[in-house]
Amino acid sequence: VQLQASGGGLVPAGGSLRLSCAASGRVFRNHSMGWFRQAPGKEREFVAAISWGGDNTSYRDSVKGRFTISRDNARNTMYLQMNSLSPEDTAVYYCVVSSTRHWVGARYVRDWGQGTLVTVSS
């Protein structure tokens, strides 16, 4: 599966961005997907995930209530709506596809997309 993330950019604190991840191949529709991020000098971390049908989602605690993950299987696209952004959200964001229908953890990630940079100014 090829994944193409987009939508990153520079935004002031408190602002919003919507990331998109376009996927090729029909496997997209049968697999859970997610977003990770990596800030400068830090390890890559899980952000959010969504099941194959979109009915189950999970988030890291620091983004709950601010970020919303969704997907449109008809368009083979996943989204991450990010609101109330803070400088701590500055990172390169990566979309991934899992080998499972429901998200069960990073160890089942099968493909990574290239990242898109999100920079939040204070």
Structure overview:
The chain has 122 residues and is an all-beta fold. Helix content is 0%, strand content 49%. The chain has strands at residues 3-6, 9-12, 17-23, 33-38, 45-50, 57-59, 67-72, 77-82, 91-98, 109-112, 116-121. The strands form 2 sheets. Strands 2, 4, 5, 6, 9, 10 and 11 form a 7-stranded mixed beta sheet that branches. A 4-stranded antiparallel beta sheet has the order 1-3-8-7, with no helix packed on it. It is globular. The chain starts with a strand and ends with a strand.
Indicate the mean pLDDT. Answer: 95
Strand percent estimate: over 45%
Number of helices: 0
Which structural class should the secondary elements be placed in? mainly beta
Low-confidence runs: none
Radius of gyration: 13 Å
Residues in helix, %: under 10%
Order of helices and strands: EEEEEEEEEEE
Q: What is the overall shape?
A: globular
- Report on the biggest sheet: 7 strands, mixed
What is the first-to-last residue Cα distance? 36 Å
Q: Got a strand count?
A: 11
Give the arrangement of secondary structure elements.
Blueprint: E1 3-6, E2 9-12, E3 17-23, E4 33-38, E5 45-50, E6 57-59, E7 67-72, E8 77-82, E9 91-98, E10 109-112, E11 116-121
Features:
122 residues, mainly beta, four-stranded antiparallel β-sheet, seven-stranded mixed β-sheet, globular, 0% helix
What is shown here, in short?
Helix content is about 0%, strand content about 50%. It has no helices and 11 strands.
